[in-house]
Amino acid sequence: MSIPQDAAPSPDDRALPSRGPGALAGLRVIDLSRVLGGPYCGQILGDHGADVLKVEPPQGDDTRAWGPPFRHGVASYYLGLNRNKRGTRLDLAQPEGREVLMTLLAGADVLIENFKTGTMEKWGIGWDVLHARFPRLVHVRVSGFGADGPLGGLAGYDAAVQAMTGIMSVNGEANGEPLRVGLPVVDMVTGLNAALGVLLALQERAVSGLGQFVEASLFDCGLSLLHPHAANWFLDGRRPGLSGNAHPNIYPYDAFPTATAPVFLAVGNDRQFAGLCEHLGVPGLAQDARYATPGQRSVNRQALREELVARFAALDGEALAQALMDRGVPCAPVLSVDAALKHPHTAHREMVVEIGDYQGVASPIKLSRTPATYRVAPPVE
């Protein structure tokens, strides 16, 4: 079985000229992963210059159908995770497909996969086999819970892991029910940690000459997100609960209504609190014993909230947020997704990518000499 022709760039790739080679230029990545965590890792590497070949099963990545909306018959969910990748399809359950994969891996630096634990081993291409044949290969596995232990080998899904790792137990209004965070934060941070693991392994390979196995599990990454709730619990043993928008340790760090749009205050020190009080025309409030220190403001948060809500009631939210930011008091209007993506600063930071009719959110990692480049739209075939 020969290497599929679509493993090479095609006219449909709609490539744009590159502004530079990228920090990872020359790195070759085979991305066998599907859905979110693994593909997100691959896109990070691709944005920074790696040559990423996405290998999908014959029926394609499941997320191609996760819509609407769709473009060219492909769901936005898939398009948001797979730019800067070339595409092909292989049936790895068949010997012929695995033979082609071995040919591809002969020239690769990194393999990304998120099959259910044991699948690669069942196919005879687990870590031990691959390391023996390709000793420099960095093998990255995104898994739900790792390979062993009480939950080892089980499949993991973002929302279920949010529930199991305590994230939902602290997300929601104080008088409401636990809520899933409104974006797949566990999957995304797992993809980020997988990409970080790749870079760590490559750095070590430069010394040892050997690749290694890198694992990022959703369960581990979900637990890693529990700051400061875990740190608080380790110190005082008190179970954290639902706190709405308010920060458990500092105040005013909360959303507040205004005459127009709500704003979010993120006041973390005495100087910022004094600036807030001066802007509101009540400088003496910063000297009130109940609010004079961060600890006292946190303890007396309900009374302080009532003071601020009363003073914000007649103010325009966006004007208030801008005025406070101008004087160094952290504050922001609560914007919708479309408003955030159309914000002038979003454009200034070049955070929206366009490749032909594809649009996506750009890499947030800014390098001065080797910036991210956007060369290839997600494979649609």
Secondary-structure blueprint:
Layout: E1 28-31, H1 37-47, E2 51-56, E3 70-71, E4 74-75, H2 76-79, E5 85-89, H3 95-105, E6 110-113, H4 119-122, H5 127-133, E7 138-143, H6 158-164, H7 185-208, E8 213-217, H8 218-224, H9 229-236, E9 253-256, E10 263-266, H10 270-279, H11 294-299, H12 301-312, H13 317-326, E11 331-333, H14 337-341, H15 344-348, E12 352-355, E13 358-361
Parallel strand pairs: 1-2, 1-6, 2-5, 6-7, 7-8
Antiparallel strand pairs: 3-4, 9-10, 10-11, 12-13
Helix pairs in contact: 1-7, 7-8
Descriptors:
alpha/beta, Rossmann fold, formyl-coa transferase, domain 3, 6-stranded parallel β-sheet, 3-stranded antiparallel β-sheet, 34% helix, disordered N terminus, CoA-Trfase_III_dom3_sf, CoA-transferase activity
Q: What's the short version?
A:
By secondary structure, the chain is of the alpha/beta class. It is built from 15 helices and 13 strands.
Describe this structure in words.
With 381 residues, the chain is α/β, with parallel strands linked by helices. It folds into two domains: 5-225 and 351-361, 3-Layer(aba) Sandwich (Rossmann fold), CATH 3.40.50; 263-333, formyl-coa transferase, domain 3. It is 34% helix and 14% strand. The protein is built from 15 helices and 13 strands. It has helices spanning 37-47, 76-79, 95-105, 119-122, 127-133, 158-164, 185-208, 218-224, 229-236, 270-279, 294-299, 301-312, 317-326, 337-341, 344-348; strands spanning 28-31, 51-56, 70-71, 74-75, 85-89, 110-113, 138-143, 213-217, 253-256, 263-266, 331-333, 352-355, 358-361. The strands form four sheets. It has a six-stranded parallel β-sheet, with helices on both faces. The chain has a three-stranded antiparallel β-sheet with strand order 9-10-11, covered by helices on one side. A hairpin with a 6-residue loop joins strand 9 (253-256) and strand 10 (263-266). Helix 1 (37-47) crosses helix 7. The longest helix is centred in the middle third of the chain and has 24 residues, at 185-208. It is elongated. Mean pLDDT is 93; it is low at 1-19.
